[in-house]
Specification:
about 240 residues, alpha+beta, Ubiquitin C-terminal Hydrolase UCH-l3, six-stranded antiparallel sheet, 8 helices
């Protein structure tokens, strides 16, 4: 049977805020454009602490090589249950990477405290926790509220999405249990990128070095200069 394929969402605050509203994340939180990784004046509009980052990266040769090498050493994810530090979804819906990236941002770490009780997001999160990888992916695949929420956002944004399936990848970066987690549905599971202190959020220098900048440096280290990434941050509403 041919797998379900959706229209890819644009990675901008307007789209993801609408998706958050539709699924049931509190309006106390909001997504913001990240215009710089190093210039404080271009980050001043984002309230701190930042609870999650949602990034689109181009699949450069260097990053693709690292991904293949990392995943080759791993078995498929076996984690499930409330003891797991993060909730991760394997992506089985074509072009749903933006919505799954949103889920990874919203249901993990401190952001999960702002999910409205009995909302669709709350139901998806509670249903996912006890399930193993394949059953969790199947639950999301057949979730009518998740699909309807995604489809309600496809016409929002500045452009009509045209990104090819394997040209770019959505990556969610969250802080949970004192660690930076990289969450992407096309990998073999959640990736622990290192420890963060109590006073370090997702835009702290260390989090950026372990996360976004690490991926950029992979490309630059092989002579590349592909900086076509976009990033939005989830934080409290200003």
């Amino acid at each position: 049977m041919e797998r379900k394929t959706w229209v890819m969402l644009e990675n901008n605050p307007e789209v993801m805020n609408q998706l958050a509203l539709k699924l049931g994340l509190s309006s106390e939180l909001s997504f913001y454009d990240v215009w710089s990784l190093d210039e404080p004046e271009l980050l001043a509009h984002i309230p701190r602490p930042v609870l999650a980052l949602l990034v689109i990266f181009p699949l450069t040769p260097a990053w693709n090589k690292e991904r293949q090498e990392e995943d080759a050493e791993k078995d498929d994810y076996k984690g499930h249950g409330p003891e797991e530090p993060v909730i991760w979804f394997k992506q089985t819906i074509g072009h749903a990477c933006g919505s799954i990236g949103f889920l990874h941002c919203a249901i993990n770490g401190p952001a999960a405290q702002y999910i409205r009780p009995d909302s669709d997001l709350d139901k998806i999160r509670r249903a996912a926790i006890p399930l193993k990888m394949e059953d969790r992916a199947d639950m999301l695949y057949h979730s009518v509220p998740f699909e309807e929420a995604h489809k309600s956002c496809v016409q929002i944004g500045d452009t009509t999405p045209t990104i090819e399936e394997h040209g770019h990848h959505f990556v969610a970066l969250v802080k949970a249990n004192g660690k930076l987690w990289e969450l992407e549905g096309s990998r073999k599971g959640p990736i622990d990128r290192g420890e963060l202190g109590d006073d370090e959020d997702l835009l702290s220098p260390k989090a950026l070095e372990l996360g976004i900048k690490r991926t950029i440096l992979l490309d630059q280290g092989t002579g590349g200069n592909d900086l076509r990434f976009s990033c939005i941050a989830l934080a409290h509403k200003a």
